[in-house]
């Protein structure tokens, strides 16, 4: 039994003297192993990053979704590597505890592994602790090249927004047997390549649960049900300040909250308690 019981209750908290302990990949894996859900939100600027960090958000994703919610584009495709690096720097300078990961934007890793390494170096030097890339199959060798060079990688399967035109829109992926089998095969390949984290977006709940149970790393869901190792939302979506229609899996956490801080705290609390997402309400198994 620990000498200080509070240490067991909050193993990742710091002290008044030292401040919060920075999140690490090792601690994220320990959370997965102990069944403690990981709470992730997007962040694009220093003020938001500081607020989310202070509210106990475990991971801050500097997503290329900034192209839609910050820049007003219809998709993530126009976002450049230079723009991503700028926003990564803003977020990283404000984060004290949270793990910071960043999207490799469209066109920054598709050519070959060498291009991916150069792009990842740019984001890591800006302050990212992990980079995220989309897709399976051809991405496994790219992931391996990054991991071999000491760059932690988060993969992304299911709905991959950078491929929205090829997918025919923002649709649920893996609904039929062949699609589910392909996604599971890609997940195994990415795990073998060394991807420490995997985002599953807009896939049926049962499929996300099956992948999460097998995946050796940390599976984060968005529109993929409650049986992953954690959840992520676009900050603007959960604050109900989106430019367009809100996905059905998003809850408006500003409803009933007196401030943005209270809304973020409610999100973290509900993810940790396993009450968000609500599969019955949003129909994840469809």
Q: How many domains in all? A: 1
Order of helices and strands: HHEHEHHEHEHEHHEHEEHHH
- Cα Rg: 18 Å
Q: According to CATH, what is the topology?
A: TIM Barrel
| Global shape | globular
Give the total of beta strands: 8
- Which strand order spans the largest sheet, edge to edge or round the barrel? 1-2-3-4-5-6-7-8
What is the CATH architecture term? Answer: Alpha-Beta Barrel
Characteristic terms for this protein:
286 residues, alpha/beta, TIM Barrel, eight-stranded parallel β-barrel, 8 strands, globular, disordered N terminus
Give a quick precis of the structure:
The chain is an alpha/beta fold. The protein has one domain (24-273): TIM Barrel. The chain has helices at residues 5-9, 25-34, 46-54, 66-69, 81-94, 113-126, 139-148, 164-167, 177-193, 205-214, 235-238, 260-273, 279-282; strands spanning 38-42, 59-62, 99-103, 130-132, 153-158, 197-201, 218-222, 230-233.
């Amino acid at each position: 039994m620990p000498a200080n019981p509070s240490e067991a209750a909050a193993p990742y908290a710091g002290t008044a003297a030292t401040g919060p302990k920075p999140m690490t990949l090792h601690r994220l894996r320990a959370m997965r192993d102990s069944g403690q859900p990981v709470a992730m939100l997007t962040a694009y600027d220093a003020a938001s990053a500081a607020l989310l960090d202070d509210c106990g958000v475990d991971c801050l994703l500097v997503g290329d979704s900034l192209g839609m919610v910050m820049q007003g584009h219809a998709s993530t495709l126009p976002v450049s590597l230079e723009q991503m690096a700028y926003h990564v720097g803003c977020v990283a300078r404000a984060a004290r505890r949270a793990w910071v990961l960043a999207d490799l934007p469209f066109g920054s890793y598709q050519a070959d592994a060498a291009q991916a390494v150069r792009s990842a170096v740019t984001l890591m030097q800006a302050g990212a602790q992990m980079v995220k890339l989309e897709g399976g199959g051809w991405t496994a060798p790219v992931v391996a090249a990054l991991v071999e060079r000491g760059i932690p990688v988060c993969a992304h399967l299911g709905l991959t927004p950078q491929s929205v035109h090829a997918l025919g829109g923002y649709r649920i992926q893996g609904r039929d047997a062949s699609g589910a089998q392909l996604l599971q095969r890609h997940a195994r390949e990415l795990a073998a390549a060394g991807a420490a984290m995997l985002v599953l977006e807009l896939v049926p709940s049962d499929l996300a649960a099956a992948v999460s149970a097998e995946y050796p790393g940390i599976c984060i869901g968005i529109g993929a049900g409650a049986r992953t190792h954690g959840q992520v939302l676009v900050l603007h979506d959960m604050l109900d300040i989106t430019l367009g229609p809100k996905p059905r899996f998003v809850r408006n956490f500003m409803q009933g909250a007196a401030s943005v801080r209270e809304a973020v705290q409610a999100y973290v609390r509900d993810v940790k308690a396993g009450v968000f997402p609500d599969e019955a309400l949003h129909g994840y198994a469809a």
